């Protein structure tokens, strides 16, 4: 049994045998590059130069070799053909960008959910630590208790010293 090419998605059904089997992803990448080029200043400058040369040659070569006389019907046909191909290419590029944005949005949403869950977990842990620290004896509390015990021992020693008849050394 023949294996599917590595770049063909298995979850997309094939629409039967075609005489021209074009990978939709590679065609979309190429059309996206073309659409990006159509939106650059470089393309506009090249097209402007070509139109000026086209018109100039057709006006200068009036009697000699004029392939597109004054109403420039051939030039208009070229622009129409270009527009007929450019519009779908731009839409295809825009659809691919929408798909990328959708994937990026899904990733951002899942990252935000993970961050929120982590933050909630840390908040619960911090609250548990605060409760635990509230129950733990602090340094000042221990010092106070030690001072109280020391004072009590001094009192007991003072009470005991006269009863023994000895004086306590300090």
Automatic annotation (TrEMBL):
It comes from the Bacteria. Keywords: Membrane, Transmembrane, Transmembrane helix. The chain crosses the membrane at residues 43-67, 73-93. InterPro entries: DUF1003. PANTHER family: INTEGRAL MEMBRANE PROTEIN-RELATED, MEMBRANE PROTEIN. This is DUF1003 domain-containing protein. It comes from Pseudonocardia charpentierae. The lineage of its organism: Bacteria, Bacillati, Actinomycetota, Actinomycetes, Pseudonocardiales.
